[in-house]
Design goal:
With about 750 residues, this protein is an alpha+beta fold. The chain folds into five domains: about 170 residues, Nucleic acid-binding proteins (OB fold (Dihydrolipoamide Acetyltransferase, E2P)); about 240 residues, D-amino Acid Aminotransferase, Chain A, domain 1, CATH 3.30.470.30; about 60 residues, 5' to 3' exonuclease, C-terminal subdomain (DNA polymerase, domain 1); about 120 residues, no CATH class; about 70 residues, Rossmann fold (3-Layer(aba) Sandwich), CATH 3.40.50.10190. Helix content is about 40%, strand content about 20%. A five-stranded mixed beta sheet has the order 2-11-10-3-9, with helices on both faces. It has a five-stranded antiparallel beta sheet with strand order 14-13-12-15-16, with no helix packed on it. It has a four-stranded antiparallel beta sheet with strand order 5-4-7-8.
């Protein structure tokens, strides 16, 4: 896939997955099946791995669930409720086990046990018990904040009201579901009463649990399987299997198909057994979950931003279905990409009702790929066609085939539009790009609105009362065109003839509340501002890393500006290297890449080089993110917009992350060479947990270099700069020794 194809596809995936998350987690009305969702997520991850510099600020890889719905009070989880990474074949499972061995530094023959359990297709729920009494129940929400469904949880028979012998604080996590028999009976009752029926048991369970009237929940046949835990005042056991047995002893329903497995072969055998029994279980499952059994090792492995490193879901294969393609519609994305969508006669595939599918681009519709090669044997796609919806975890979700024998008489060849359906601007397709794009830019409502939606999103400014719907309306009416306009709303529309309070749906109180909410965000943390700008590749984590490193807004701007000349040289050096490769190939000689690169860097102001090295040396940033960041601030129009925004704000300094009584809190540490007492990943996590900043390269701001055997240029540079250098033993002595394996699971 070309870079242009990858860029367009990532934009499309971000939009589809955001919609899918909201539909599934918040609205209990999934628009795509689990297999489709998994395939989209997997494709997104694969593209980000192949093109790391194209990772979007709103990457689905950094998201869990969806924000809680309105109508429920909110509960912040004491420990985040994460999602799971996915495996789709035996190779993925083997790689999962190998990764754990590599991370922990274990030999291939070292004992390593796992548990395997069915993955229930229901709604995640966290139950909090204090002194043995159920005091709180919350849905997953977005992983950090869920919906308070305590009253409804009290009505579910599988959930104990009181526990005997439990820790003083115990958060039990599991899945609310509905059996096939109960689901059929419920739908029968609903139909007899002339009320809405449900598409599948998962929808029925989720909709029943998330009722504002607990009496409705009580009348629904909900069940609960316990399989995990959150906050604990005392450990349940030393192993995953032991902890599950403890939950069962406390009175929770646990799945009797959970098994302890000693190796990869045993995991796959259990998977095969569960898959074979799937149709007879009486409830929906969509895979098997594998978890490392030893809880101390789980603690060492720790968590990624959205998933644990010690668990994975092995998903079942997907299904196929045939249906009618009623219409092809064009959606315009935030980047201006025109994305065709197939509107289908609704069809149930894998238990989910599907009414639309992605058609990728005009080449795909025409029956060819971006290189002109035939796909689907060259069969094009037309409105009215009978199409096969292909649901699989190992390919891009798509219309797999067209039945030409059922093509309606008179069906016409689909002509892809050459103008934007939203603004009428020309839609051009550049050479080498698989996607046609609107040239309207900020005048195109689709692009401007999406940028403003990102600005007010939950992880950005999160202004109470100013959500996607309000942004769309205000932009449509010409009230806001860029972020700075939001902070001028009260001055322009708080008084006079055209006042917000006089608009339909608004009043004096609601208008005043919105203005107050906007004013409340004039004082805002630096990391949120950076993320809200929507800079390519700068997501929440990168924004926080930048804010933590530069501490204040003025220092951040100065550093980015100072790095500008070096960023320009970096681009020129890459061009020079490419040109040298081409010349060398034409002249049939070995390319001198170092000379080509160094020639470009000669004569650069040392201050610019230092600023650039400091920027790219921030762990997790690197040249790709740095280039995107610097380029954004170099654009006159973008910079002016950011300047107008900043004039309305008091950007709060970032408090450096620090651990109490830590000798390395606030210090910048670089690791190099081979570490023998722990893996590099463990060393980095340990240092950051103690409040240190871990950088990828040595600079004048480096405080400590930890050098193992094989240390090379970083050690020499540290010596030249007078940076304190420690071997691994000295480092461990400084921070208090190697990890014991204990910690939060």
């Amino acid at each position: 896939m070309s870079r242009a194809d990858a860029k367009a596809r990532l934009a499309e995936l971000a939009a589809r997955l955001a919609d899918a998350n909201a539909a599934y987690h918040r609205n209990d009305a999934p628009e795509i099946s689990d297999a489709d969702y998994d395939a989209l997520k997997r494709e997104n991850a694969a593209l980000e791995a192949a093109f790391p510099d194209l990772k979007r600020a709103d990457s689905p890889s950094d998201q869990v669930g969806a924000p809680p719905a309105e109508g429920f009070s909110k509960i912040s989880h004491a420990q985040r409720m994460l999602s799971l990474g996915n495996a789709f074949d035996a190779g993925d499972v083997a790689e999962f086990v190998s990764f754990i061995r590599r991370y922990l530094g274990l030999d291939a023959d070292a004992p390593l046990a796992f548990t395997a359990e069915p993955k229930i297709d229901g709604l995640s729920l966290s139950l909090r018990y204090e002194a043995g009494v159920l005091v709180q129940a919350a849905t997953r929400g977005d992983g950090a904040v869920g919906e308070n469904v305590t009253a409804n949880a009290h009505t579910i028979a599988d959930i104990p009201e009181r526990l005997t012998g439990a820790p003083d604080v115990l958060e039990v996590r599991g899945e609310v579901y509905m059996s096939h028999a109960d689901f059929a009976a419920l739908n029968s009752r609903q139909a007899d009463a002339g009320e809405k029926t449900f598409a599948n048991p998962r929808n029925a369970a989720a909709g029943s649990l998330r009722q504002l009237d607990a009496g409705i929940t009580r009348a629904r046949p909900l069940r609960f399987f316990a399989y995990a835990w959150g906050e604990l005042s005392a450990p349940l056991a030393e192993t995953q299997s032991g902890a599950i047995a403890r939950l069962a002893a406390l009175g929770f329903q646990t799945n009797d198909l959970t098994r302890r497995c000693e190796n990869t072969e045993a995991l796959l055998a259990q998977y095969a057994m569960i898959e074979q029994a799937r149709a007879t279980l009486g409830y929906d499952i969509d895979g098997v979950v594998y978890k490392l059994d030893d809880l101390a090792l789980q603690a060492r492995l720790g968590l990624r931003s959205t998933t644990p490193r010690w668990a994975i879901a092995h998903k079942f294969p997907a299904e196929l279905a045939w249906t009618r393609l009623e219409k092809i519609e064009i959606q315009v994305g935030r980047t201006g990409a025109l994305s065709p969508v197939a509107r289908l006669t609704p069809v149930t595939v894998g238990g989910v009702v599907v009414s639309n599918a992605t058609l990728h681009n005009e080449d795909y519709i025409a029956g060819r790929d971006s290189k002109g090669n035939l796909i689907r044997d060259g069969k094009d796609i037309r409105e009215g066609d009978f199409v096969q919806v292909y649901r699989a975890g190992d390919v891009i979700p798509k219309l797999a085939d067209v039945d030409l024998s059922k093509r309606p008489e008179g069906a016409v060849l689909y002509v892809f539009p050459t103008t934007c359906p939203d603004c009428g601007s020309d839609a051009l397709r550049e050479e080498g790009d698989a996607v046609r794009r609107c040239t309207g830019g900020l005048i195109c409502p689709a692009q401007a609105v999406e940028k403003l939606k990102h600005f007010v999103s939950r992880a950005a400014f999160d202004i109470e009362g100013l959500g996607a719907k309000q942004v769309e309306q205000f932009h449509k009416d010409g009230w806001i065109a860029e972020p700075a306009d939001i902070f001028e709303l009260e001055a322009r529309y708080g008084t006079g003839l055209q006042q917000l309070k006089n608009r339909e749906g608004w009043g004096e109180t609601s208008a005043g509340n919105l203005f107050a909410a906007i004013n409340d965000k004039r004082h805002i943390p630096m990391a949120r501002v950076i993320f809200a700008l929507g800079i390519r590749h700068v997501g929440e984590v990168a924004a926080a890393d930048l804010a933590r490193h530069y501490v204040n807004w003025e220092g951040f701007l100065a550093a980015v500006d100072a790095a500008g000349p070096a960023a320009d040289r970096h681009r020129a050096a890459e061009d020079a290297v490419a040109a040298e490769r081409q010349r060398a190939a034409e002249e049939e000689r070995r390319p001198n890449l170092a000379a080509a690169r160094n020639a470009v860097w000669e004569g650069l102001d040392p201050a610019a080089l230092t600023a650039w090295e400091d920027l790219v040396g921030i762990d997790g940033i690197g040249a790709t993110v740095a280039l995107s960041l610097v380029t954004t601030f170099q654009q006159k129009r973008e910079r002016a917009s950011i300047r107008r925004l900043a004039s309305h704000l008091s950007v709060e300094d970032m408090t450096p992350r620090a651990a109490s009584d830590s000798p390395v809190a606030g210090k910048t540490v670089v690791f190099t060479g081979t570490l023998e007492k722990m893996t590099r990943a463990e060393a980095k996590a340990r240092a950051e947990g103690l409040g240190a900043k871990v950088a990828g390269s040595v600079s004048a701001k480096t405080d400590i270099l930890v050098a193992g055997p094989g240390a090379g240029s970083k050690a020499k540079k540290a010596a030249d700069l007078g940076v304190k250098t420690l071997d691994e033993d000295a480092w461990l002595a400084l921070i208090g020794g190697a990890p014991s394996g204990a910690g939060d699971g």
